[in-house]
Amino acid sequence: MDPALSAVRLSVREAVHTLSSEDGGRIFSTLGSLKRYLGQTENPALPGEQEEFARVHFSAFLRCLVSKLSPDWLELLPDGQLEELWASFFLEGPADQAFLVLMESIEGTAGPSFRLMKMAQLLARFLSAGRMAAVLEGQCWQHTESASPLLQETLLIRVVTLPDRLGNRLQRESLAVFLPQNYFPLLGEEIVRVLQAVVDSLRGGLDCSVSFVSQVLGKACVHGRQKEILGVLVPRLMALTQGSCLWQRVCWRLVERVPDRAMEAVLTGLVEAAPGPEVLSRLLGNLVMNSRKAQFVLTQKLLFLQYRCTTPMLQSLLGYLATDSQRRPLLVQALKELLETWGSSSAVRHTPLPQQRYVSKAVLICLVHLGDAELHDSRDELLASLMAGVKCRLDSSLPPVRRLGMVVAEVASTRIHPEGPPLRFQYEEDELSREMLALATSRPEADGSLETGSRAWWWRAPPCLLSAPGQLACLTSLCYLHSDDEFVPYDMSGDQELKSSKAPMYVRDCVEALTTSENWERWEAALRALEGLVFRSPAATREVSVELAKVLLHLEEKTSVAGLEGLRQRALVAVTVTDPARVAKYLTSQFYALNYSLRQRMDILDVLTLAAQELSRPGRLGRAPQRGSPGPASQPSSAVAPAWRAVVEERIRSKTRRFSKDLGCRWVPGGGGASPECLTCTIHWILCCRPLVTFDLLGDDQLVLGRLAHTLGALMYLAVNTTVAVPMGKALLEFVWALRFHGDA
């Protein structure tokens, strides 16, 4: 056994035994002699003994010191002498081990106690003394083969989650230094101190690594603390990298070593904290060229998948791509993709207006940074996307979208095609248009001066402009208008909007359009044409009547259609009138079905009432299908047919007798106009064929039941002249009595 190692072990064992005594002087002397292994006395121990004490015995000895902590033990010596000597082991020994023991002891203490508060106060002294920098710095000198992954992972978690852990343990007794708004700026200052030590070591020719510091920075940003830590770190690094290539390379390495899972959080925080593209370029270098993750974040995610960046952030990001010749091809590619997105008709329809503004600003900023030669090489592709976007936006019904297209078209056309005639639009300036025009004022040729207070207008661009970039002059001649105040306004009150989709000609085509079509104009056209097609083609309607009723009952609004509810209701009434037996049976069966909203159930009742009223009109008698033998009214008409037909119909109406055995009556020509078959079957299905699933009679279904009673009363009134009135009245009376019985219960 090595004598030196044996001596260290014996000294530690003796000190642990002495701590259990109540002799304050002896404890003080023993602890003082043990400090020589920390190298903090006039006669320090040998380097080998110090290394062995730190590597083997230090953590265990600190845990022993924590276990002895009590008010009586500290009072063994007056004036806090013993407490100060006790604390010095944590503040002067290996920082990483001391930090872990402090965190372990705080988290392991159950409930508020003297020991918990003393350890928390000692940890606060540990942070205030700058010992966190020693914790981080100690991992920078670890060689890859000697570093402990488990130790580094434990340290990483404890360092970043310290405010959460201390807050959970101390609750309202937490100290100010442990609050996130105070701790993470302190952590940023400690990182700067560690980087300064790294720079000094590199100047001295020593090897070191910033990987652990990068992991701490990345994990803090992932936890949402970018503003606190980068708000301190970026200003300091901005000053230190000014004119220092070594500091710039250290910063590049710091960001490059951030784990991929944290790269987005770090880069987003840096773009937000950096005051300009020059500072961002000094902090990142050519990271976007060396890291695929960084390139995806900077050129894809922040530009296309998010739109939270402010205008200064966009200027810093795109300016960073423009400040180096190696990165400028990425800026050109970003402009192409931005204009392609800007020119997508699908994007115009489905993306929110803030995101469209965001992409438009990015397009203008890219145009400011790119030169004429770079734009000339991609002119055709850029113009094609620009013209497509202009057409889509000028076709929009939203004034902000149209104004956005006008502003971008004016600036972009001047930059992309400076030789051609400039585009000029008339529109009302607002804060957004002035802001976007200000983005292009850095180049004289991007003339953004427009008349203020002019009337907003829009036009429909011809389709040929989508594939003909050379038609820019044509577009200019169409949109460049002189003052027209002297002309009399044209009467456009009778104009109708042109639709790109034709209305369906058959009922089945309407069903298909309402169920499967993704073309919203075709969907709307089918809904508007459906009522007329149903009445014009009753035979075709009866083939799909139930299916069509099902589609209309479950129809949801896919686009903004004026009067959608009225169109849907009239179409349902038309289908019910055309095929009353089957459609009424379907609707009444669905009235009691599950998973229907209150609105749908009330729609069913409204449709049944309106259909019954339509069937009861006398004017529908000639159009109703006749089941008896053809009479004089069915013979070919002549010039005087209308005159004698009225006389014949009046005689038939006065002489006809009606017979019925049950609710399923047959049609008797010449009746009062209503179809007893439809009316009686409807009431029969509603009153007598209810399933077991019923409504909450005392709850929110009172409105439905009231409407149901109204519908039944209307049907009863329409059938009052028929022989089925008595059984219908009995059924209705039983239904009302059941409602009252349940209500009283």
From TrEMBL:
<dbReference type="InterPro" id="IPR019337">
    <property type="entry name" value="Telomere_length_regulation_dom"/>
</dbReference>
<comment type="similarity">
    <text>Belongs to the TEL2 family.</text>
</comment>
<feature type="region of interest" description="Disordered">
    <location>
        <begin position="619"/>
        <end position="641"/>
    </location>
</feature>
<dbReference type="Pfam" id="PF25320">
    <property type="entry name" value="TELO2_ARM"/>
</dbReference>
<protein>
    <recommendedName>
        <fullName>Telomere length regulation protein TEL2 homolog</fullName>
    </recommendedName>
</protein>
<dbReference type="InterPro" id="IPR038528">
    <property type="entry name" value="TEL2_C_sf"/>
</dbReference>
<feature type="domain" description="TELO2 ARM repeat">
    <location>
        <begin position="323"/>
        <end position="421"/>
    </location>
</feature>
<feature type="compositionally biased region" description="Low complexity">
    <location>
        <begin position="629"/>
        <end position="641"/>
    </location>
</feature>
<dbReference type="GO" id="GO:0005829">
    <property type="term" value="C:cytosol"/>
</dbReference>
<dbReference type="InterPro" id="IPR051970">
    <property type="entry name" value="TEL2_Regulation"/>
</dbReference>
<keyword id="KW-0963">Cytoplasm</keyword>
<dbReference type="GO" id="GO:0042162">
    <property type="term" value="F:telomeric DNA binding"/>
</dbReference>
<dbReference type="GO" id="GO:0051083">
    <property type="term" value="P:'de novo' cotranslational protein folding"/>
</dbReference>
<dbReference type="GO" id="GO:0051879">
    <property type="term" value="F:Hsp90 protein binding"/>
</dbReference>
<dbReference type="Pfam" id="PF10193">
    <property type="entry name" value="Telomere_reg-2"/>
</dbReference>
<feature type="domain" description="Telomere length regulation protein conserved">
    <location>
        <begin position="504"/>
        <end position="612"/>
    </location>
</feature>
<dbReference type="InterPro" id="IPR057348">
    <property type="entry name" value="TELO2_ARM"/>
</dbReference>
